[in-house]
C-alpha cells in the first residue's frame, strides 16, 4: 500500500486516521503537510512496527533536529527495513547529522538519503561522512544540495567515497565549492572504486579551470550516465575540455545538463559532434546559453545524423529567432528519436512556428512534448498548431504560455482538442488573456474530455 499526500494541513483527527493507514504502508509520502517534531514521534513508532515500510518522504516540513532525533529512534530498531529517506527542507542543522550518522552506521537497508536544502554545513556533512565510512553502510544515493557546504568538505567526502563502492549517485549542487575543491573531488572520484552513475554539480562556482578534471571522471567512470554542471561559468573553453571526456569511447553519458554555462555558438561545433556520434546520449539541456540561430542550425544538422539517438533537447532562452526554424523543422522531419523539444522563450514568431509545424507533421517525427512558451506567437499560427495537434497522435503535451493568442487563437486550439484524433493530454496556457466565454468553453472541454488537463 502507498500513502501519497501533499500540501495538506493535518488536523489531529486527520493525523490519527492516517496513522492507522500507515501501519501497513510500504511507501509514505507527506511533503508540505505542516508536520512538526511531535508528528515524528508517531512516525518513529510506525517505522518500528511496520517492517514493510521502505520509503519515507517528508520534504518541506518543519521537523527540526528534534523531529529527526525521534525518527532515528525508529530507524535504529532491528525491525526497520527503510531504504529511502527524504528530509529536504526540514529545518535541520548540523545537530541532526550525529543522529543520522548513527543510522548510516547501523542500518544497512538504507540506500538513499536526501537531506538537501538544510543548513547542515561542512561540519555536519563531515559527521555524515563518518557514518558512510562504516562497513555496515550500503548507501547508494546521497543528495546534499543547498547544504551550505564549502571546499573544506571535500577531503572527508573523498575518504567516504574511497570506502563506499556502493555509491551510485552524488548531488552537491548549489554549494560554494569552487574550482580547487571540485578538482580535488574529481581526482577522488577517479580513484574511488564506486561505480558512480549520477554526478550533479550545478551552481558550485566552477569555471573552465575544473573541466579537465571533470573530463577525467567522464573518461574513467564508464558507469557515469547523468552529469549536470549547469549554472557554472565554464564557457566555450570549458565545454571543449568536457567534450574530450564525453567523446571518449569509454564514456556512456545519457543525460547532460549544461544550462546557463556561458556557452555561445562557438560551442555548437563540439556539441554537434557529440550529438551526432555519442549514441548513448538521450537528453541534453542547453537552456539560457547564447547559442543563436547559427549554433542551433549546427545542432539541427547533428540531429539529422542517423547515429544521433537524442530524445530530449532543451534550448529555451538561447537567442533563437524565426531564422533557425527551417533547420529545426528539417531535423524534426528526419530524427525519429526526438520526443521532447523545449524551445520556449525564443523569438520564433508565427512564421517560425508554422515552419516547425511542417516538420511536426512529417511521418518521421515522433515528438510527444513541445514547449513554445513566450515565443512571440499570436492567433496567426494557431491554425497550423491545431492541424498538428489533431493529426499528430504522438503529441501529448503542449505549452503555449505567455503568448498573446487571445480568444481567436485559443478557440482554434480548443477545436483541435475536441477532435477524437487529438491525443494531447496536457495543455499549458499560463498568463494568456481570454474572455469569460472562452473560459467557459475551456471548462466544458475539460469536462467532456476528462483525460485532458488544461493548466492556466
Describe the overall structure.
The chain is an alpha/beta fold and 456 residues long. Among the domains are: 1-148, Leucine-rich repeat, LRR (right-handed beta-alpha superhelix); 176-262, Ribonuclease Inhibitor (Leucine-rich repeat, LRR (right-handed beta-alpha superhelix), Alpha-Beta Horseshoe), CATH 3.80.10. Helix content is 41%, strand content 12%. The protein has a 17-stranded parallel beta sheet, with no helix packed on it. Forms high-affinity heterodimers with RNASE1, ANG and RNASE2.
Draw up the topology in text.
Blueprint: E1 2-6, H1 12-22, E2 27-31, H2 37-49, E3 55-57, H3 64-75, E4 84-86, H4 95-106, E5 112-114, H5 121-132, E6 141-143, H6 154-162, E7 169-171, H7 178-191, E8 198-200, H8 211-220, E9 226-228, H9 235-246, E10 255-257, H10 268-277, E11 283-285, H11 292-303, E12 312-314, H12 325-334, E13 340-342, H13 349-360, E14 369-371, H14 382-391, E15 397-399, H15 406-418, E16 426-428, H16 436-448, E17 453-455
Parallel strand pairs: 1-2, 2-3, 3-4, 4-5, 5-6, 6-7, 7-8, 8-9, 9-10, 10-11, 11-12, 12-13, 13-14, 14-15, 15-16, 16-17
Helix pairs in contact: 2-3, 3-4, 4-5, 5-6, 6-7, 7-8, 8-9, 10-11, 11-12, 12-13, 13-14, 14-15, 15-16
Amino acid at each position: 500500500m502507498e500513502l501519497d499526500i501533499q500540501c495538506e494541513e493535518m488536523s489531529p483527527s486527520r493525523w490519527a486516521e492516517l496513522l492507522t493507514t500507515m501501519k501497513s504502508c510500504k511507501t509514505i509520502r507527506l511533503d508540505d503537510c505542516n508536520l512538526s517534531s511531535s508528528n515524528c514521534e508517531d512516525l518513529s513508532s510506525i517505522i518500528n512496527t511496520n517492517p514493510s515500510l521502505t520509503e519515507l518522504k517528508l520534504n518541506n516540513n518543519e521537523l527540526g533536529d528534534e523531529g529527526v532525533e525521534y525518527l532515528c529512534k525508529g530507524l535504529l530498531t532491528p525491525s526497520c527495513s527503510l531504504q529511502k529517506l527524504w528530509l529536504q527542507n526540514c529545518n535541520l542543522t548540523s545537530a541532526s547529522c550525529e543522529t543520522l550518522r548513527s543510522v548510516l552506521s547501523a542500518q544497512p537497508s538504507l540506500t538513499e538519503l536526501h537531506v538537501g536544502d538544510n543548513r547542515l554545513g561542512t561540519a555536519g556533512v563531515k559527521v555524515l561522512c563518518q557514518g558512510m565510512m562504516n562497513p555496515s553502510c550500503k548507501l547508494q544515493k546521497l543528495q546534499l544540495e543547498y547544504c551550505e557546504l564549502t571546499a573544506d568538505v571535500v577531503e572527508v567526502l573523498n575518504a567516504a567515497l574511497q570506502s563506499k563502492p556502493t555509491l551510485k549517485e552524488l548531488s552537491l549542487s548549489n554549494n560554494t565549492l569552487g574550482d580547487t575543491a571540485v578538482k580535488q573531488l574529481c581526482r577522488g572520484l577517479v580513484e574511488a572504486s564506486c561505480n558512480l552513475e549520477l554526478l550533479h554539480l550545478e551552481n558550485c562556482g566552477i569555471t573552465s579551470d575544473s573541466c579537465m578534471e571533470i573530463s577525467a571522471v567522464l573518461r574513467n567512470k564508464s558507469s557515469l550516465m547523468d552529469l549536470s554542471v549547469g549554472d557554472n561559468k565554464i564557457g566555450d573553453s570549458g565545454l571543449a575540455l568536457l567534450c574530450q571526456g564525453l567523446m571518449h569511447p569509454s564514456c556512456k553519458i545519457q543525460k547532460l545538463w549544461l544550462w546557463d554555462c556561458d556557452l555561445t555558438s562557438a560551442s555548437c561545433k563540439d556539441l554537434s559532434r557529440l550529438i551526432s556520434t555519442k549514441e548513448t546520449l538521450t537528453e541534453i539541456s542547453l537552456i539560457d546559453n547564447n547559442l543563436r540561430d547559427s549554433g542551433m542550425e549546427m545542432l539541427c544538422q547533428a540531429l539529422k545524423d542517423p547515429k544521433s539517438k537524442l530524445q530530449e533537447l532543451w534550448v529555451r532562452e538561447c537567442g533563437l529567432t524565426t531564422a533557425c526554424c527551417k533547420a529545426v523543422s528539417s531535423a524534426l522531419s528526419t530524427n525519429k528519436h526526438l520526443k521532447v523539444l523545449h524551445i520556449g522563450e525564443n523569438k520564433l514568431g508565427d512564421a517560425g512556428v508554422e515552419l516547425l509545424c511542417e516538420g511536426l507533421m512529417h511521418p518521421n517525427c515522433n515528438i510527444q512534448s513541445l514547449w513554445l512558451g513566450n515565443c512571440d506567437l499570436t492567433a496567426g499560427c494557431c491554425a497550423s498548431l491545431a492541424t498538428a495537434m489533431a493529426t499528430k497522435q504522438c503529441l501529448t503535451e503542449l505549452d503555449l504560455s505567455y503568448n498573446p493568442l487571445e480568444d481567436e487563437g485559443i478557440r482554434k486550439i480548443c477545436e483541435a482538442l475536441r477532435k477524437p484524433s487529438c491525443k494531447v493530454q496536457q495543455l499549458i496556457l499560463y498568463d494568456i488573456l481570454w474572455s469569460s466565454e472562452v473560459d467557459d468553453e475551456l471548462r466544458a472541454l475539460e469536462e467532456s474530455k476528462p483525460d485532458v488537463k488544461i493548466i492556466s
